[in-house]
Amino acid sequence: MSYRKGADAERELKKKFELEDLYVMRSAGSKGVFDLAVFYPNKIRLIQVKTHGQPVNEDVLREVEVPPCCTKEIWYKIPRRGFHGEVLE
Questions:
Q1: pTM for the full model?
Q2: What residue ranges define each of the domains in the chain, with the CATH number in brackets?
Q3: Which of 5, 23, 28, 74 fits a disulfide with 39 by CB distance 3.0 to 4.6 angstroms?
Q4: pLDDT of 2-41, one tens digit each?
């Protein structure tokens, strides 16, 4: 997968949340665990964005300790269908 394809998916999902008047930070080029942080008044959603067919290492995401107000999520960009997200337990 090209960097551009993944970055485009991250920017597209960021825009989707911003249209809901939410503040979103994108971790561009950091190679970090989470690509987006979406801020609500009482919670933060930490999101890893994947394009269709890209491998996911859920174990790494599960091991990251976050405050109770945060959710850890994986969102997939599916061609011609948009985004699908799931919360990790």
A1: 0.88
A2: 3-87 (3.40.1350.10)
A3: 23
A4: 678 888 999 999 999 999 999 999 997 767 899 999 999 9
